[in-house]
Every structure is written in C-alpha cells, then in structure tokens.
C-alpha cells in the first residue's frame, strides 16, 4: 500500500548553511508522496545550502519563520548542516515555531545537527533520539535518551544521524506525516 500525503503541507525549517542533501531528498520524498512542501527560514529571499563545508546552491524561501503559522502545516522537517541549526536555535521565532509542532502533537523529522534546535525548544526531554554523534552530550543534558541508530521514531519524532541514513529517514517521515498527529 502506497503512503500518500495528498492535501498535506510540510514545513522545512532551514537557514544558510543547511546540508543540501538533507534538505533536498526529504523534500523530494514528501512531494513525491503528494504533499506540498514549503521552505520556512529566518529571512526572505534565498538561503545558501552547503555540501559539508562547501557552498552549494541557493534555495528560495517561501515564508519567514516570523510570519509562519505552525497551524497551517501537517508536519515539520529540520535538516542538518552545522551552521543551519546554530542560526535557528538562536532565533526566538524559530524556537517558537518548532515548539508549536510538539505542543500540537504533529510529526517532526530531524537529521544530523538539526536536533540542536529541538534542544533549544526544550522538546526532547524523555524522548529517544539519534543525531550526528557530536550532539550526544547536548541531547542527553536536555533529557533525551540518545542512541546510535540509523533512524529512530519516538511518538511522531523521526531522527537520523547523517546523509547515509536518508533512505530510511525519508521513508519514515512520509509514514509519520501520513499518520498525522500523535
């Protein structure tokens, strides 16, 4: 049975420095499943993606996080990259936006360094999660149980470690977005 996201709207929260493959592949996966994807960011215009530490292509921002309403979306994806989540976690509107998805029980996908924003939003306490290994201490200190697995799901929160995990991550976020709020 194919999973469909027809009629669903998924927010991708990212800023300059987003790891390109961690933005592009999940976006392609949800769009292929029928969802409308929107890039939400800190400023209007474009953001610059990176391939590891090398600058890559710009991507058009659909709406700023200051103007975005989490209530308009059925799910959220937080791609990684080292700089991207560091910019997001210091922005009060981004933190508010992320927290709103958890308050509503909506599914969220996060990969690599993306959980830094979850730590700032104080939404990982009591959850099982994975990430890029260097975030382990931050997540444990924020009350999460950190595990080293390719893809972890905890009550609508899907997490993965790195680009190699994208096939499992993409399949699981589509499944969780199709299920809806938890």
Short key terms for the protein model shown above:
182 residues; alpha/beta; Rossmann fold; seven-stranded mixed beta sheet; three-stranded mixed beta sheet; 6 helices; 12 strands; 32% helix; Class_I_gatase-like; transferase activity; transferase; Type 1 glutamine amidotransferase
Total discrete domains: 1
Distance between the ends: 21 Å
Output the structural class.
Answer: alpha/beta
Number of strands: 12
Radius of gyration: 14 Å
Indicate the CATH topology: Rossmann fold
CATH architecture: 3-Layer(aba) Sandwich
| Helix/strand order | EEHEEEEEHHEHEHEEEH
State the helical fraction.
25-40%
Strand order in the sheet with the most strands: 6-3-1-7-8-12-11
Instruction: Characterize the overall form.
Output: globular
Structure description:
By secondary structure, the chain is an alpha/beta fold. The chain has one domain (10-179): Rossmann fold (3-Layer(aba) Sandwich), CATH 3.40.50. The chain contains six helices and twelve strands. The protein has helices at residues 20-32, 83-89, 92-103, 115-121, 136-141, 166-179; strands at 9-13, 18-19, 36-41, 46-51, 54-60, 63-64, 75-78, 108-111, 128-129, 145-146, 151-154, 157-160. The strands form three sheets. A seven-stranded mixed β-sheet has the order 6-3-1-7-8-12-11, with helices on both faces. Strands 2-4-5 form a three-stranded mixed β-sheet. The longest helix is centred in the last third of the chain and has 14 residues, at 166-179. It is globular and about 35 Å long. The mean pLDDT is 97.
